[in-house]
Amino acid sequence: MKGYIANTDYDWYLFLQQQTDLDEVNFWQPSGGRQFKAISKYAPFFFKLKKPYYAISGFGYFRHFSIIPARLAWDTFGHANGAPDFETMNARIEKYRKPAHRDPRGEYGIGCIIVTQPTFFSESDWIPQPKDWGRPTVQGATFDLTQGEGKRIWEECRLRTQLERYKNAGLAGASVQKEESPRYGEAALVTPRLGQGAFRIEVLDAYGRSCAVTREHTLPVLEAAHIKPYAQKGDHAVPNGLLLRSDIHALFDRGYVTVTPDHRFEVSQRLKQDFDNGKSYYPLHGNLIHLPGKQVDRPDPALLEWHNSQVFRG
């Protein structure tokens, strides 16, 4: 089992450590010039503070990597980017970028490492960085979590989360011992809950950043639509998503359009009846939608049937 220990900005950590109820964070990279392939999905991802702290300040689980415009990252993750506003986030990014690559509008690409179920430790619970961290590294390094320093850090992180659970349960004085088996199991077998931001970016990438119906690929107008709404117990999961242009997303949510289980786009006659319009949508009626390349990412037929029968106005 492998995990990744990433060099972490102190201000990013400090802001997020003070937040509550975070289910995901965006560990951004100022340059969008390289992919992140160091670990597999769901593997532990550790936040290591740089000089002068040299300590592990928290951890989470790697979920997805994408290169997207900084402004879209802010619109998607907000405070989970580790800043109180876009101007602060953008200033931190541009501090590391070359002058010619700066843009106050944030239209340049940054690397987004999406980490789910993040935990941030208070300073008294920081864990010393690996003793063998001597090799030069800018971004971070991969460690084997079954032995040596990687195992020590992983076990210390699990112990701290176990203690926190006892505190939250009002059992702060209880005796807590290190667990015999990993608190979270083997990382490759863990499936952390997907947050709203990760859902949006994963759907965006699954559909090749192109609207499933119109093939529009202008990022600011593309939205990840839930087939079954999250408020009605629909999951933040790619098979429960469609990438749609914003106007079609609004019509989909209100039942004026749908996608059938055999992936055909349908437009309700109610659109004309209710608004005496819709002529830009009816030519799309009956068209096959554009699907993700991976079978596992394609819309769930049962969820499409649910939308057809429970939401579509027919």
Explain the overall architecture.
- With 314 residues, the chain is an alpha+beta fold.
- It folds into 2 domains: 2-189, Hypothetical protein (Archaeosine Trna-guanine Transglycosylase, Chain: A, domain 4, Roll), CATH 2.30.130; 196-310, no CATH class.
- The protein is built from 8 helices and 11 strands.
- Strands 1, 2, 3, 4, 5, 6 and 7 form a 7-stranded mixed beta sheet that branches. The protein has a two-stranded antiparallel ribbon with strand order 8-9.
- The relative contact order is 0.13.
* Total separate domains: 2
CATH homology superfamily name of the largest domain:
Hypothetical protein
Largest sheet: 7 strands, mixed
**Helix/strand order, N-terminal first:** EHEEEHHEEEHHEEHEEHH
How does the helix and strand content classify structurally?
Answer: alpha+beta
The CATH class label of the largest domain is: Mainly Beta
Please, what is the average pLDDT?
89
How many distinct helices?
8
Q: How many individual β-strands?
A: 11
